[in-house]
Every structure is written in C-alpha cells, then in structure tokens.
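Annex B. Sample input.
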Amino acid sequence: MQLTLWTYEGPPHVGAMRIATALADVHYVLHAPQGDTYADLLFTMIQRDAQRPPVTYTTFQARDLGGDTAELFQASAREAVERFKPNALLVGASCTAELIQDDPGGLSKALGLDIPVVALELPSYQRKENWGAAETFYQVVRQLADPQRRPLAREPGQRARCNILGPAALGFRHRDDLTEITRLLDQLGIDVHVVAPQGATAAQLATLGEAHFNVVLYPEIASVAAGWLQRTFGQPFTRTVPMGMGATRDFIREVAELAGVDPEPVLQGQGARAPWYARSVDSTYLTHKRVFVFGDATHAVASARIAAEEMGFTVVGIGTYSREFAREVRACATRLGIEALISDDYLEVEARIAELQPELVLGTQMERHIAKRLGIPCAVISAPVHVQDFPARYSPVMGFEGANVLFDTWVHPLMMGLEEHLIGMFRGDAEFHADAAPSHLGGAVRPQPAAVQTEPEPVLVAVATAPAAAPDGPLAWQADAERELRKIPFFVRGKARRNTELYARDKGLPSITLETLYDAKAHFSR
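Annex B, continued. Sample output.
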C-alpha cells in the first residue's frame, strides 16, 4: 500500500458502484463505514447525474464493531429492498468492511429475498476499480442471463440483432459514444437488442442470449462478460474499438461481416471532416509533433493509432494504469518502436513526460495537471476525468463524429500554444509588451511610454548578476542568452536549456552566453 495524493483508479467497490448506477432497476447494498459513503459525490457532482446512485450503505461506526455488524447489514439489505423495490440486488463490502469478514453474500441469502441477489467478492487490496467493474458486470450477466433464451434463427431479409456491452456510469464520453455507435449500426441495417449495463433492466439482461453477436465498446468493462456469453450462447463479439477514422472503418467491416451485410454504403457515405482538416494547410505545421499518450488501455492504444496514422504526430511515449491490459499496450508500443510505461504512480508518469519533453500530452485528469506544471499542452482522452469532461453538448470520441471531436480536441491546444508562443516572442514590441492595451481596444487605452518600464525582469537580474560558476557547478546564463532562450517555443524550451547546459559542461564553460546557445544549437542539429 502506498500513500498518494492522486490515484488513477479507486478500490473495486467503486467499479461495482459504476455498474449498479448504470443499470436501471438494480440496487447495491454496500457494507461500509461512514467514511466510504462517497458515491453521491462521484455521480451527482462529477458525472452530474439527475438522480442519486442506487447504493445503500450500512454506515457502521467504531462503536458498532463491538456489537453485531452482521445484523446491521441484514437490516440495511431488508430495508433497501422494501424501500426501493429493485428487481435484483447486489451485495458486497468496501475495502474497510472487508476486514470484518461479515460475508454479505451469505447474510443476504439467509434473508430469503424473492429477487435475485448477486454476491460480489472484490479483493480490495489486490484489485482496483476497472477490474471491480468488469467482475461485477460479469457476475450480473452470468446470474441474470437466461440460458434457455438463445439466438433466434434469422428469416430471409430479417435484420441482425446485437447487444452493445460496456457503457457504464462515470465512463469517458460513454453516453455520446453509445448514441454515435447505435446510429452507425442502424445505418448498417443492424438492430440493437440490449445495451448493458447502461440503462439495462434485469428483465432485459435475461434476454442477452437472444442477440446474434455482441459489440464490445470498452474491453476493460465488458470483455470478460463477452467471453462468457460467447462460451454460453455461441455469440461472437467485436475486437475493434471504433475510435478514429481508420478504426471506425475497420469496425464497420467487422460488424458487417458478423451481421452478413454490405458495409460499402456506410463506408462511402460517411461525412467526417477530420481527414480533410488533417490534410489542410493549417494543419501541416503539426506534422511530427511529439506526443505522449497515457490512459486506460482502450483509449491509450486507440489514441496512439490516431496520433501516428491520422494526425501525422510522432508518438514518443505510451502508457497505461490498466495492468490487466498491459500486453495490448506493450504490443502497441512495439509497433511504434517505443517502450511502454505500465504504472499507476502519477509521479512516475510525470517523470517520463519530463524526460521525453513532448509537445502534446494526451492523458487523464492527472496528466492535465502534470502538463500544466510542465508548460505542455494537454488534451484529456481517458478516465479518470473531472466535471468538465462530462459536457452538456454532444461530444463522442467514437465513430465518424468522434473523429471530428478528437481532431478539434487535440489540435486546438497546439494552435493556442502557437499563438501564445508568438505573443511571447514579440513581448518587447510596442503592441505586445506587458503594459500594452488589448489590440481590439485600438487607441482607447494608450500603452505606457517605454521609458517608464525601468524594472528589469527579476529572473534576468538574478541570472545576469550570478557569479561565474566552475565547470562542475551550476551554470549561469547571461542575460542576452536567457532572453534568446525565451524566444524558443515553450514546448521545447526545456530540452533546449538542457542541451545547451550539457554542451557548455562538455566544453568546460563557466557560464552560457548568446554565442554558447547558438553553438549548442548547431552542435545538436548535426
């Protein structure tokens, strides 16, 4: 166990909450102390759900540990069924309550409830949130899917039917991805039988076996359940995640083959604008921009493909916190000729970003903060995310419209970075200096005369007056060299500084002058 400020995943019972909140008529009774009752915060404040999550806590306190906490759990379960009248019940323990070993499954079985009860055994100290979500969904599907309801033979001309598996609560753009992919399937002439867990009822889950195949959108959540459905009902499932133009086209072909339909009308009729934008003059300067990608395995691998094949970026690093899918991320890294980072330590991720000095970071909410500290543009591509990544507008990242959204989301930070760099370059100009009026105000506010600006920048004073250093000590930068360094784009400035200092040490120079900066640039450009 490690004390940390941030974490990419919560404990597995948070994953169970995500499945329970996504389902329509299922309730989750969680054996937990008062400190573990934070589901309302996650789903009503971050995801901005209109209703509270269907979770009941036993909320035992320290004084209860001397009594019968098992009876407390049974009373909470009985009251939850009477009050909320669910059609299925999930029961489990939080990481703290796991230590008590009260066995929620056995206790709920003793109640003799007249609804299905899914007992969850989620090892809180060995596993994490995404695994907990996948295991919960698998157990729910395994218990509620009726083995007698199998795929029906298709009559000539009858449309194929599929289940969409994976969309869940607190997922990155799951709501809009679902809308986009449902529309795409309809264009192919395929009906959606059940979407699970998002919006599914216990009765609908019983009919999962009637579909002809399954579409897996988020393998971290649905791959285990999809494997069981394949073994039990003979339902094949998709392997391609439709993120980006190339993957969406591959997905259409894969689904069309499973459904026995012609994919060409949909492939030829797509109207995504991202490919044209990516070839336009405005985007040519983005070619070979250095990109670092980090997130859950699904979004990291898909984003790396889009960055390398569709945007013309150079992927210099890729990683994931999803250890269960480390093999897929390592395989992607091998194809790109780089080394994968498999870690859930944000400090290790920050160190890798600082080492690689990318020009764009594609990551989670954590990488957004890391990139801000390092002065690097960033776009969020994966959970964990904050409230701003649950937009009110329609904003998928899958399908053809998702390709448009990703293009805008990734390119705009770089475009704004270029604008900020240009303003920084000309900060000494009469129009752009710190006391100049905004250009759109015209002559309404006059800039102060240059003579008034007598205070030099503190950092330059400190550098200019620093004593000369020995070759093996800290290197001082002369004022003119420091000013020239500031003209270098912010996203490569750190690398330029390190290369120049390395060159100066190799040459035994006590300080860095403007000439040293130019010499270093020429040396490393060869």
